Amino acid sequence: MKLRIWSVVLWLGVAVVGWGQVHEGARINTWDETIATSAAAYTVQGAETRQEKLLRTQIQTMQPDVLPRRIIFVPHWKYLYAARMYRLHVPTGMASRMFTHLESRSVFIDTDRYGDDDSLGHWMAHELGHLAMNSSSEEDAEKAAAKYRRRLKESTQTRPTVRRLQPTAQGGVVKSLEN
Asked: Do the Cβ atoms of 61 and 69 come closer than 8 Å?
């Protein structure tokens, strides 16, 4: 019996020493590599393909300090149920389009109320602010969100102008500029 105990202790000791070994070719990831691979760091559930692509692009542009683990698009009834289950406190008279559960780093989005694509980025910046500050305080979240919104705004201003051809009622084509 003692031989078995000592062999287990010895085996565990060798395993701990093995954890300290480092591969000679190992290197530290740069920020660009982290951002490039960060899209796989979280899941987007319940979104249309267009929404998911837009959201991932916006989050990559904002370069948040802390990424969520899950972003979940849910219908309104399920959103209300999740808010109740997580005991979300919404001030009287305030409407909520999204909320973040800090412990699980999950962001819930009400698909019936979130609005258009621009508001998606605006409100996601706020939710990422909650994660970055690790606080349920709205003021703290807005402080962090200001930095993310600025990055998002700068990227949309520097986006190149795209020329599109639009059909007219007479069957002709008109060139239009789009930002």
From this structure: no
Using a 10 angstrom Cβ sphere, with 0-12 exposed, 13-18 middle and 19 or more buried, the burial of residue 35 is middle
Two tokens, residue 17: 């020493």
9: three-class secondary structure by DSSP: helix
Give pLDDT tens digits for 126-155. 999 999 999 888 889 899 999 999 998 888
* Neighbouring C-alpha atoms within 13 Å toward the C-beta of 161: 5
Judge contact between 42 and 132, C-beta under 8 A: no
Q: 117-133 and 138-157 helices cross at what angle (nearest 10)? A: 130
Strands (DSSP E) contained in 51-129 are: 70-74, 98-101, 106-110
Domains of the chain: 31-178 (3.40.390)
Residue (of 61, 20, 88, 74) closest to 159 by Cα position:
61
**Which tens digit of pLDDT belongs to each residue from 81-126?**
888 888 877 655 556 788 888 888 999 988 887 777 778 888 889 9
What is the crossing angle of helices 49-62 and 117-133, to 10°? 50
pLDDT at 150: 92
